[in-house]
Amino acid sequence: MSPMHPIREGDFIVSNDGTFKPGFFSLPNNANHYVVIWYANISVPTYIWIANGDDPIKDSSRFLKIGNSGNLTLFDGDGKIVWSVGRSKLLSRSFGVSDPTSKMKRRV
User: Fold this and answer.
1) Which residues form the Bulb-type lectin domain (predicted)?
2) What are the tens digits of pLDDT across the range 2-31?
């Protein structure tokens, strides 16, 4: 996956070891969308982290990008930044991963 390539609804990325899968989640019959990370290798979605639990996204044209420095950034449909987290925080706290080789790769 090239840096800053957009990740949209239906796309997802997984960690190199296949453990984690970030993407979008929404409840049925609900306009709220969330950026979540769940275990990729479990058939029943098990969410381990929600980025915007207090501030759901209503814009279905939003997208994620991973920057050159590893930041994960959420944009609205107009390309404005809604939310962003740095690589070090993402790896150390959110994923519970301390190994910097656990880079993300895109699967569509």
Assistant:
1) 1-108
2) 455 677 777 777 877 888 887 888 878 888
Cα–Cα distance, 92 to 77 (Å, whole number): 29
Residues 6 or more apart in contact with residue 41 via CB below 8 angstroms = 18, 19
How far apart CA 27 and CA 70 sit, in angstroms, is 28
Sign, CA dihedral 29-7-12-76, equals negative
Residue showing tokens 């390539």: 5
> Do 82 and 76 touch, CB atoms closer than 8 A?
yes
Contact partners, residue 10, CB within 8 Å, separation at least 6: 108
Distances in Å between the Cα of 47 and the Cα atoms of 4, 33, 73, 76 are 24, 14, 19, 22
What are the beta bridge partners of residue 48?
A: none
List Cα–Cα distances, 70 to 10, 22, 31, 57, in angstroms: 21, 14, 29, 22
